[in-house]
Amino acid sequence: MARDRSRPGGRAAGAGGLFEPLRLARETPPSRLTLAAAFAEALASFRAGRFAEAAGAFAALAGVDGVSRRDAERAERYRAEPPPEGWDGVTTLESK
Asked: For residues 90 and 14, is the Cβ–Cβ distance under 8 A?
């Protein structure tokens, strides 16, 4: 399941994907598949710059998913102070 795309600070290009492995669909509990689908929708909203929508979707998952809690906070920050024009949906890491 895709979790994020990021690049090291100071670089304009070279994004890498962050993924959480899931078992084969037939071996994965239905609740986990539902979470993965909802997270994918929230992430798509985030990458499209629909930060209020993304924040709400991530917040709905935050009680069962720590990454969603972090992403809800990040979407709220971007809603309040949007990223620069031409933002590509990639998180630039500022520290290790």
From this structure: no
